Amino acid sequence: MSTRIAVLASGRGSNLHALLDHLDTLGDRRGGSVVVVASDRSDAGALALARERGIAAEHIEPGEKSLRGLLGHHRVDMIVLAGYLRLIPETIVREYPGRILNVHPALLPAFGGMGMYGERVHRAVLASGARVSGATVHFVDEAYDRGTIIAQWPVPVFPDDTPHVLAARVLRAEHRLLPRVVDAVAAGRLRLIDGKVRGSSASGTEHAAFLLESVDDATLAAAIESSLAC
Ligand code: GRF
Question: Which of 92, 142, 181, 182 would bridge 137 by S-S if both were Cys, CB 3.0 to 4.6 A apart?
Fold first, then answer.
């Protein structure tokens, strides 16, 4: 039985779009299906996208009652936060251990936490002088952006980047990372066990943070040389 996924989104829904497209590409191989999209904003683009795709789309009031009602009505197994700006009530977090995921547009634990969303994140990255940023997908706990990290993917930060340009580069990484992590968790290839992410034996490659291990020394040295040439 395919895992029943709820996506919560407050904005335009480009991550939702990437997730739906990826699951469609997987067809019968998918680990789960999005059965409902919900938003705290009735005008969210994510709700319009869900309706276009024939998926239940619901505006929910903030707070536990309406979220709990939605999750029960749609028999939701797993929750994906794709740009959802509200905190998930602690009681619900505890009822979905290892089954609530969030995507963040920076390499947590840096540049995360209360108030760190949208271009504020990228402005902080640029102000810090960091030369790498990226996307993070993590399990959700009771605080913003603090749960166990599942996977990350780096993108370069260039000296003349604006927050808008960097946001777009990071978003491209999000669109490729989030769907693959969601499918791996939905299919049970990645699990949260005793606070750590565990892959099933066949899924060693699911862990995205293998960059340095998968590149031979000459290629790595050449890449570092070229990054210094800017
Ligand atoms: C993404 O950058 C995500 O990392 C953050 O909110 C943004 C949502 O964008 N949590 P979209 O609505 O998926 O386009």
Answer: 181
